[in-house]
Design goal:
The protein is α/β, with parallel strands linked by helices. The structure holds ligand MGD (2 copies) and molybdenum atom (MO). The site of one ligand MGD has 32 residues, from helix 11, helix 20, strand 25 and strand 26.
């Protein structure tokens, strides 16, 4: 390990997980000085009667009796349960301008917010404000708008079902569908792309399917870091001898070799399991070519009269095969291999794995969704699965690996800028007001409305909008035009420092803390990435007596904004079962008897029609959908161009930075690095470790440029580079996004290397 603060690059040769993960867990609990409290929290995490891990959306299986947490879940909990407190004294000591100079890591380390604060322009500081006054101020701002569409209501995916549902009802009663949410930057291509294929914008597998799969594909997802609990399923699958195919421009450590941190035998014998049986080293954006190449192999076999397609399934359940076949067969192997960077031989080999398997799961993450054609790309994954009837049978299906722990649930209960008319009718019938019918803004449109001076109020239910969004400089300027910004949060983040003329920070009770109301202790519910709905009950006392549950904040904003509302907001503050009853009324098909079902400590499954081979599409069939060509991003014909993927390190949770290390990729004390193929570096006449700047190709008049970046030799495909989000967000143009969903194409930013004018900290590179 390097000396403190000296940055170092030292390739990681051990298996991922194991003792490294165990050590890292203890270290983070210690650093946040919560060892005892933290261990108690870990015992309650993801157990019936406890709370849901605040980290990722991967489900916890009910058959596993051991502790259900991972290194990164422990980090998320430790940072939430930290002893550090952010008090009014802290805010009195620092102007907002000074705080802006601090790093995201420093802001995070200041600890939990403890009381509501309001920005004071005279002193450039946040000062305490009484809760009642804060709600009055929000009500005044919202009611002063000429149109309800001038307000933007952001949601981050940690928000529980009860809160998200009430928030969506309040905002619709107020009169807009402006619901930009973190999903718009994440799995929106899943939500918008899959319905046209299979009638639902969610995954179709359940946990038990991992036990029955005969092959698993993992495309563009870094499992060991971002959904570590899934590693258990992969280790089990490998032990059964199941082929696992990894398609990724980065040979992600944990997906190559992994030691289960909870497997005492493996850990004590220093054993590990080889995870992937095929590593497909794809170029950035080359996945479409691979998928079409695989489908081509299937169609070639079909043409030879081989029995490779599931003809009965295709006949009974699908439409559009001929058009798909014609498109796929028109792609030449020369183009497929050139664009994917993968040999015909390897594509044929993984196609054979797919052909042999009677039940296949395809998992995917941001490496698929964050491209200019993300939604259409997701549909090609569905095509491949449909060809062999991989829906509605054991061990098969599509598995979008979701991000935030309740991001899927938030959409289910109404956080949707494009709600259906049927849903709006339901809201009208249940609540007795007429909701707005026109579509609202997604994230990119919300920023455009701010930039145009049209949007005046921004309310952030969790998250760190300013830091998560593209085009940092331009977006900051847009946000600063707002009349009011409200951050509802556990921790101080940059989203509270990039603020409107008026600004509030409203601190909340966190996931791991107890919610007590005058009606007694309350619980909330979460829907994970496999559509299981479970309860979450905190175990710690709230961080201060001046924080409020998120649900109460929504209700009191509603009461301050809509004094004539007929809804019983005050009663919802106290009794969350009343909220669940309303969810059941608005969504009878999936949420009937919600309160009754929650009596089962393991919760229940929401219905996923494709599992029954029922297709909620206009035709009642699953659709093979054609996407022209092989490119998922606009082509730029300049040999100097590199595609930049902005990715997560092992030590961050989105915009929350836990440390400046990325253990599995061998980087210590530095986040301003660029992973590059050695040949690409040498072609540019650069040394390993050289400091450069990157500049984006764009023709909209903005120069996008980030300086002080260290080039590191890394096994990247030619023409592909990677670096960390959110530091590189200034390079991501606002209008560089998937047309269908609005999701920024954060994995394929076209950039070139330009000389640096900055100085950077020295780095030690181990040979
Ligand atoms: N510990 C931790 N857990 C998390 C998060 C976190 O930040 N920290 N974030 C949560 C959230 S909100 C989300 S959405 C998920 C994100 O989880 P992931 O989907 O794993 O997200 P990323 O790390 O952004 O990138 C995923 C992978 O895409 C690959 N990739 C890049 N470009 C391409 C491409 O063109 N093709 C292919 N095939 N692969 C490509 C990268 O090499 C990387 O391995 O994780 C969730 N869980
Ligand atoms: N370039 C680039 N940009 C990206 C991505 C990328 O891969 N590359 N990924 C995108 C993706 S997938 C996502 S999901 C977004 C993430 O965007 P967001 O969801 O907006 O960001 P987070 O960093 O998860 O938000 C962290 C903040 O949430 C608050 N918080 C934490 N817990 C709670 C809680 O329980 N309640 C409340 N009220 N607040 C809480 C804390 O104040 C913390 O600072 O970023 C997107 N942006
Ligand atoms: Mo995400």
């Amino acid at each position: 390990m390097s000396k403190k603060n000296e940055s170092e690059f030292k390739p990681y040769h051990h298996p991922a997980g194991g003792w490294g993960a165990a050590g890292a867990t203890a270290k983070v609990l210690m650093e946040q000085s919560v060892l005892v409290k933290g261990s108690r929290g870990l015992l309650a995490m993801n157990q019936p009667g406890g709370f849901k891990c605040p980290s990722c959306a991967f489900p916890d299986p009910d058959h596993r009796k051991k502790l259900e947490f991972c290194e990164n879940g422990a980090k998320a909990l430790a940072h939430e349960a930290t002893k550090a407190r952010l008090t009014r004294e802290f805010f009195a000591q620092h102007t907002v301008t000074e705080l802006m100079e601090q790093s995201d890591y420093w802001l995070e380390m200041q600890g939990r917010l403890t009381e509501p604060m309001r920005y004071d322009p005279a002193t450039d500081k946040y000062l305490p404000i009484a809760w009642g006054d804060a709600f009055t101020l929000i009500g005044q701002h919202l009611r002063a708008l000429e149109s309800p569409h001038q307000a933007e209501f952001y949601t981050s995916g940690r928000t529980a079902n009860e809160t998200a549902f009430l928030y969506s009802i309040f905002v619709r009663e107020f009169g807009t569908n402006n619901f930009p949410d973190c999903s718009n930057m994440c799995h929106e291509p899943t939500s918008r792309g899959l319905p046209a294929s299979i009638g639902i914008g969610k995954g179709t597998i359940v946990m038990a399917d991992f036990e029955h799969a005969e092959a698993i594909f993992i495309i563009g997802q870094n499992t060991g870091t971002n959904s570590p609990r899934m590693m258990t399923n992969l280790v089990e699958a490998r032990k059964r001898g199941i082929p696992i195919v990894l398609i990724n421009p980065m040979p992600e450590r944990a997906l190559i070799r992994f030691t289960e941190p909870q497997d005492i035998v493996q850990m004590s014998t220093f054993g590990s399991t080889a995870i992937s049986s095929e590593f497909v080293h794809v170029r950035i954006g080359g996945d479409l070519a691979i998928l079409k190449g695989m489908m081509r192999v299937l169609f070639e076999a079909e043409a030879r009269g081989e029995d490779v397609l599931d003809q009965d399934f295709i006949k009974d359940h699908t439409a559009g095969l001929d058009a798909l076949r014609a498109d796929v067969m028109s792609q030449s192997w020369a183009d497929i291999t050139r664009i994917s960077g993968i040999s015909e031989e390897q594509i044929r080999r993984i196609a054979q794995i797919y052909i042999k398997s009677k039940a296949t799961i395809i998992c995917y993450g941001m490496g698929i969704t964050q491209h200019q054609e993300g939604s259409h790309l997701v549909q090609q994954i569905a095509n491949l699965l449909l060809l062999k009837g991989n829906f509605g049978k054991k061990g098969a299906g599509v598995a979008p690996i979701r991000g935030h722990s309740n991001v899927q649930g938030d959409r289910t209960v109404g956080i949707d800028e494009k709600p259906t008319q049927a849903y709006l009718d339901r809201v009208r019938d249940v609540f007795g007001f007429e909701p707005p019918r026109e579509h609202g803004h997604h994230v990119v449109e919300a920023i455009e409305a701010m930039e145009a001076g049209y949007a005046k109020v921004f309310i952030g239910m969790g998250g760190n909008f300013a830091r998560a969004i593209p085009d940092t400089e331009r977006s900051y300027a847009a946000m600063e035009k707002l009349h009011l910004t409200v951050g509802i949060a556990t921790k101080l983040n940059r989203g509270h420092l990039v603020h409107g003329k008026d600004a509030l920070i409203l601190p909340v009770v966190s996931r791991s803390e107890i919610i007590k109301t005058s009606a007694g202790e309350q619980f909330v519910t979460i829907e994970d990435a496999m559509s299981n709905v479970t309860a979450s009950r905190g175990v710690f006392e709230p961080v201060s007596t001046s924080v409020l549950p998120e649900t109460e904040i929504v209700c009191r904003i509603a009461m301050a904004t809509l004094p004539d509302s007929k809804l019983p907001w005050a009663r919802y503050i106290d009794d969350y079962s009343l909220i669940r009853d309303k969810i059941a009324e608005v969504y009878p098909a999936i949420y009937a008897d919600f309160s009754e079902k929650m009596k089962d400590p393991h919760g229940f499954h929401l219905d996923i029609p494709p599992r029954r081979r029922v297709w909620m599409t206009p035709s009642g069939k699953a659709n093979f959908l054609v996407m022209q060509g092989l490119e998922v991003n606009a082509v730029i014909n300049d040999p100097a161009m590199l595609r930049l993927a902005t990715i997560r390190s092992h030590d961050q949770y989105n915009t929350t930075i836990y440390s400046n290390n990325d253990r599995y990729r061998g980087v210590y004390n530095n986040r301003l690095v660029i992973f590059m193929n050695k040949q690409d570096r040498e072609d540019r006449g650069l040394e390993n470790g050289a400091v450069v700047a990157l500049e984006t190709y764009s023709d909209d008049g903005y120069r996008r440029y980030v300086d002080g970046l260290r080039i590191l030799d890394y096994p990247m495909p030619r023409g592909a580079i990677a670096g960390y989000y959110p530091e590189l967000n200034p390079l991501l143009p606002l209008d560089f996004h998937d047309e269908t969903s609005g999701t920024p194409a954060a994995k394929a930013i076209p950039v070139k290397v330009v000389p640096s004018v900055a100085s950077a900290a020295p780095i030690r590179i181990a040979g």
